[in-house]
Amino acid sequence: MLIAIAVIALLALAFGLLLGYSAIRFRVEGDPIVERIDALLPQTQCGQCGFPGCRPYAEAIATEEAEINLCPPGGEATMVALADLLGKDPVPLDATASEEKPKALAVIREQECIGCTLCIQACPVDAIIGAAKQMHTVIADHCTGCELCLPPCPVECIDMVPEAVATVNWKWPLPPASGENAFLNSATES
């Protein structure tokens, strides 16, 4: 009986050491630059960059298969942050991404909704709820404003409403792009 216990204990020790060595020797780590790029992206998962989500786009940027200027929801601020992270020069935004719009939320005019569920299928973040042949509504806290629900709606009952400015989401306006100081210009003119 003592011999059986000793054999089992030795086998357990040997297998434990083998598993420990294997865990150290064959460890697979993710690419840390992909993680950092993904953290800078807005996580809307909208696909407007041509990739199915932010993570695939981050992987394409890390392998230099995609440019840093393809993210419309991130806009110029995200592009500049990516340029700083990767040590690249900022690139003008892609033509479709260059028009920065204020953040907007989808609102469904429920009395006009026919319940086709096409908007539910198009929403990448599941912000639209409803059932077939019933009215749908948007969960405002989940909506990213990607506008992917607009094209599939057959009755065009979805509106993009600008987000109301409150103390929670208000931001300082960026300084003029030319780098000129309006105060100094007005002082020199007088």
* Strand content range: 5-15%
Q: Which CATH-level-2 architecture of the domain at 101-168? A: 2-Layer Sandwich
Q: What oligomeric state do these chains adopt?
A: single chain
CATH uppermost class of the domain at 101-168:
Alpha Beta
Structural class: mainly alpha
Report the radius of gyration as a whole number of Å: 26 Å
Largest sheet properties? 2 strands, antiparallel
CATH-derived topology of the domain at 101-168 = Alpha-Beta Plaits
Number of strands: 4
Low-confidence stretches: 182-190
Query: How far is it from the N-terminal to the C-terminal residue, by CA?
Result: 103 Å
The ordered string of helix (H) and strand (E) elements is HHHHEHEEEH
What's the rounded overall pLDDT mean? 83
- Biggest sheet strand line-up: 1-4
Q: How much helical structure, as a percent, in the residues?
A: 25-40%
User: Overall 3D geometry?
Assistant: extended
How many H/I helical runs?
A: 6
Could you please describe the fold and organization of this structure?
This protein is mostly helical and 190 residues long. The protein contains six helices and four strands. The chain is extended, with a radius of gyration of 26 Å.
